[in-house]
Amino acid sequence: MKKSILFTLFSFSLSYAYGNGYLIPDIGGNFSSPVDANPAGIYWNPSITAFSSGGNILLDIAPTYQKISYERIDYYPGIAVTKYPETSFSVLSPAPIFGATYSFSKIPLTVGLGVYAHYGRETRWDENGPQRFNGTKQFLAGINAGPSIAYRINNKISIGASFNYVYSMLSAKTSLAIVLGEASDPFQFEDPAFEVRVDLDNLTASNFSVAGGITFKPVRALTLGIAYLSPYKVSLKGPAKISPGPNISALSSALVSNLGDVKVKATQHYPQSINFGVKYILTRKLESNFVMQWYDWSVNDALVLKLSSPDSTTQSLLDILGEKRMEFHFVDAINFRLDFRYAINPDTRIGFGGGYDPSGIPSEYVTASNLEFDKVQAFISGEYKISKNFKLSGGFNHYQSIASRKISASNVLPISTGYYRGIIEKVNITLSATF
């Protein structure tokens, strides 16, 4: 009996919480890309930093506001039978980057150090809402830190690489129902009489990744840059806390209280990716920039779950359970953006542009926690040279989901069908210095 309880509790909670969310790919502000020679290139394309000079520092603080709503609709089969009131949450999260580079004067070599958040998302659904069995609160973040090196072969070609230590964090809360054996009715997964609250308390992991790139300037007005970022495997580890739900039956509450301490190990693959950029100088004052990214999300096909406990009785049951492989089936995604920048005078530039950022999550695997949209982006930006050594830039980015994401059929339980809607606003505030 305990085996069935543990299997239900942790397989559902981790599959939904850990699959949640990915940052919008515009790290370093609207004046950063694979072909912009500033310290944000440590992420975008390490080789581009070889075309900078002297010392450079960049700090970008990018508060990101999200408002996400969910209108749950239960279908049977394909016909709406039950509708719930719309629930929503809003959250303001930072997405910062710090980078520093130094180019030697006597040799064409540039070294750097970067710290940035690559993946992450935060959700704060109502703990008593209709989506609570698919998750309530989640915080997922991946922080990269490491050195870079770039070498300028000549005035047209450079190569570069970066080496990253990746620290991943996950905290999550969800409601789950104790289901014994196989459930014939999907609503059994949401019976308040069997409801427990699960808290994954600060699961962490440490990993390493590498990136390499090349920059080519075939003619004076044209710059091409491309970089490859390696995949890596994350094994998050940490404790799980279980507490009875507000309306749980006495029998179910007694079963939960008899469980010993449980520790969780969740292993999942993060994708390899390619960053590509083109800069073309149209006139003395006007330039265009095109950026495209490919993420191999298809490697995120499953989560491998392993449970352990210092309690011998609980551990004996976990040994019988063994490892569990849970399918995700994400798909590859390609995003792109195009912008134009105009120099009003030697100290001031303005920019505008737009892009497209698709979801890598198939509709049949979408839930209130495992959620992304196909989005279009529009932004305006500006840059001002404060003094000889300092620049301040900023940008306002609006991301609009192309349409409400309607889910009428799903491969996951508990039920996650209905309409999902989202708006994302991001402000970039970037301070850069040369010395």
Descriptive overview:
The protein contains four helices and 22 strands. α1 packs across α4. The protein has a single domain, classed as Outer membrane protein transport protein (OMPP1/FadL/TodX) (Porin, Beta Barrel). The protein is elongated. β9 and β10 form a beta hairpin. A 14-stranded antiparallel β-barrel has the order 1-5-6-7-8-9-10-13-14-17-18-19-20-22. The protein is mainly β and about 425 residues long. The N terminus is likely disordered.
- Tell me, briefly, the overall form: elongated
Helical content band: under 10%
CATH architecture level-2 label: Beta Barrel
Any idea how many domains? Answer: 1
Summarize the main sheet. Answer: 14 strands, antiparallel, barrel
Instruction: Tell me the strand order in the biggest sheet.
Output: 1-5-6-7-8-9-10-13-14-17-18-19-20-22
Computed structural class:
mainly beta
The CATH topology label is Porin
Q: Give the N-to-C terminal Cα separation.
A: 67 Å
The SSE order reads HHEEEEEEEEEEEHEEEEHEEEEEEE
Content of β-strand: over 45%
Low-confidence stretches: 1-5, 7-23
Average pLDDT taken over every residue: 86
Full CATH superfamily name: Outer membrane protein transport protein (OMPP1/FadL/TodX)
* Radius of gyration (Å): 24 Å
Number of strands: 22
Q: In DSSP terms, counting alpha (H) and pi (I) runs of 4 or more, how many helices?
A: 4
CATH class: Mainly Beta
